[in-house]
Amino acid sequence: MNTFAALAFTNILQLIAAFKNGAVFEIAFKDGTPSLVITDIAEESAGKMRVTYVSSWGCTFTSTDFREDGRYNGSPNCWLKMVKEADPQPFLKQFVNGTPAYNPKTRETVKSIDFVSGAIKVTLVSEDGIERVSTRYDHEGRHRWVAERSLVLGDLPPKPVVLEEVTMEVFKSLNFQGKYVAFVAGTHSRKEAPIATVAVKVPA
Q1: Residue 34 belongs to what domain range?
Q2: Which of 6, 13, 23, 103 is placed for a possible disulfide with 86 were both Cys, Cβ 3.0 to 4.6 Å?
């Protein structure tokens, strides 16, 4: 029995670009029915793609019910499966074809890339919505002087959670028998010694 595995695309333009760059897809079925060959994937309208495939008896059909992660809107029993990845493509071509990019050092996303006098002009947007323009990148997204500022293809990942260690002191509850309360060390007025002291990590 086949098992669905989500495709690693965040929008249909990325999937269409992968197809155009040589990726091979097929329609797989949960019950083991032979897969169907896909002959074309294109944009039907904004946010919707058109998948053209050949049926088991040789007729050509189209569907607009597949999503960018491969799921089929009409049923969980079939889905898009990638059987061959796209050929490696230059940074600029991938960006133009819909793949997002960001600066991992500054956590800015790339809004646009324009060509100016043999160089490229990159418009970056901070997490606060502030835009700036840089001409310090080459055609592969590499920063000319600071490697850590080179652009990376993909969606900006969430900020890592920074944890700090806090000492907690545990006491018997004064209001409820058999219950316990805990305070951050140094933030309470209890005079007796705690029955336990523990160190926990909490978001900074």
Answers
A1: 12-84
A2: 23
